Amino acid sequence: MSTIQTQAVSPVAKKALYLSHFTPSMMPPETLQAMLVQRGPLLQRTVDSVVHSVETAAKHHHLFVGPRGIGKTHLISLIHHQISQHSAVQTQALIAWMREEEWGVTSFMELVLRILRTLDQTYPELGIDTQTQALYELSMAQAEEQATQILLQTLGDKTLVILLENLDDLFDQLKSTSQKQLRALIQNHPQFVLVATTPSLFTAVTSQNSPFYGFFDIDPLEELSFEEVVELLEKIALERGDTGLATFIQSTEGRARIRAVHHLAEGNPRIYIIFAQFITQEALDELVQAFMHTLDALTPHYQGRMKALSGQQRKIVEYLVHYRGAATVKQIAQSCFITQQVCSGQLKQLRDKRVVRAFARGRESYYELAEPLMRLCMEVKQQRGEALAKFVVLLRERCAQTDAAPWPRPQNHTSVLAMACEERKLLEPMASVSHPMK
Predict the structure, then answer these.
(1) What CA–CA distance (Å, rounded) separates 162 from 95?
(2) How many CB atoms lie within 10 A of CB 400?
(3) 375-387 pLDDT, tens per residue?
(4) Which of 33, 100, 177, 374 has the smallest set of CB atoms within 10 Å of its CB?
């Protein structure tokens, strides 16, 4: 059983439990707005664009790109809230906010039917469910044609704003033929506006031969800077009513503790949302327990990310987890028993998904995990936390020395974790699980 579940929760901390780790759409829009950092201009620009598309014949479609936990659902939720409150959208448009995972949509007809079901849930007065009952008695081709007609008749002269998450998964299920049908529907009936998200760019939008090439305005979602992380944690503290913590966060000591976590979290908002659940002024000052609780809560997140990778990609990630540093393509390929050409291709995909990152040293490119916490989460159960706790103490002390400069990248291609461990001779106890091929 998770140790988190056995901890007593203070009255102040109870409000933090409403900060959903994985489903921000469940949270009140007011809370989401209060927690918004960095994305304010992008949010306003997108809302203005959607409203303009509703009010005019010019339609603009948006695609937000960023890894899991970067805040895509948070942004989509706020877009939905703001456009649904706009008078022009209320009178001239319908909104279909699709589920985060639309499993089972394998054809154009099923997609249209899923859109109709979503509209029926939001606008039951339209009587869509009654109209679609007869579709199940028709052939696939007949049902497809009839469902499309029901959708167009439901819209009339209104615009349909479709909010789609994980567009890459949906398009992978639809395949090329259904993608072309969707593109044709939008082109022949210019009353659709798509606002979508994806963890990384994919062939259906990047290939010049794909029907959706050049279709979207693409906005990458960036990680939070250190100052933005401080702002986020302060906002969460104030949302919880903990003014003492908010004040401590802005102090020299508080900023130093947050910088210690920032060295490992790399600006992923979800990590800080989880971290915020376990911090009080005392816990942030101590840091170790809050950090270990955060690792425990993050483990399912990283396990989910690993499951989304191919077999070869998992092998590469597992190697980098245990290697404790940055490695060349040749080194990774040799250790994983794959060719350098295959390895380069897989590393490119992992970079697009922001699982790994690369940096150059001379003529060589070195690859390492983009998020050090991913390695720590995958090791924590095997390490049983002892060495990691020592490392957190070291990192806390190291960051307390200055609040100005980040820990420099080592010149010998080792990770920050390995450098820190070497500094206090902690590398040996933490290396009890070494890579079998290293």
Answers:
(1) 6
(2) 15
(3) 777 766 555 555 5
(4) 177
Instruction: Classify the C-alpha dihedral 396-370-267-373 as positive or negative.
Output: negative
Q: Which residues, listed in sequence order, are joined to residue 327 by a DSSP beta bridge? A: 367
Q: First and final CA of the chain: distance in angstroms?
A: 33
Angle at 216 between CA 212 and CA 220, to 5 degrees: 125
Give pLDDT, residue 429. 37
Whole-angstrom Cα distance, residue 424 to residue 412? 17
Return the structure tokens found at 257: 């503790």
Q: How far apart are CA 93 and CA 87, in angstroms?
A: 10
SS3 letters across the chain:
CCHHHHCCCCHHHHHHHHCCCCCHHHCCHHHHHHCCCCCHHHHHHHHHHHHHHHHCCCCCCEEEECCCCCCHHHHHHHHHHHHHCCHHHHHHEEEEECCCCCCCCCCHHHHHHHHHHHHHHHCHHHCHHHHHHHHHHCCHHHHHHHHHHHHHHHHCCCEEEEEECCHHHHHHHHHHHHHHHHHHHHHHCCCEEEEEEECCCCHHHHCCCCCCCCCCEEEECCCCCHHHHHHHHHHHHHHCCCHHHHHHHCCHHHHHHHHHHHHHHCCCHHHHHHHHHCCCHHHHHHCHHHHHHHHHHHHHHHHHHHHCCCHHHHHHHHHHHHHCECEEHHHHHHHHCCCHHHHHHHHHHHHHCCCEEEEEECCEEEEEECCHHHHHHHHHHHHCCHHHHHHHHHHHHHHHCCCCCCCCCCCCCECHHHHHHHHCCCHHHHCCCCCCCC
Which residue type is seen at 314?
A: R
* Residue 99 amino acid letter: R
- 42: region left, alpha or beta (phi > 0 left; psi from -120 to 50 alpha): alpha
Q: Mean pLDDT of all residues in the chain?
A: 82
Which residue, 142, 123, 120, is CA-closest to 131? 120
Classify the phi-psi angles of 180: left when phi > 0, otherwise alpha if psi is within -120 to 50, otherwise beta.
alpha
The candidate with the shortest Cα–Cα distance to 417, out of 405, 403, 431, is: 431
| Residue percentage of the chain with pLDDT more than 90 | 49
Greatest extent of the chain over all pairs of C-alpha atoms, in Å? 72
- Tokens 């990590």, residue located: 271
The tens digit of pLDDT for each residue in 311-324 reads 999 999 999 988 87
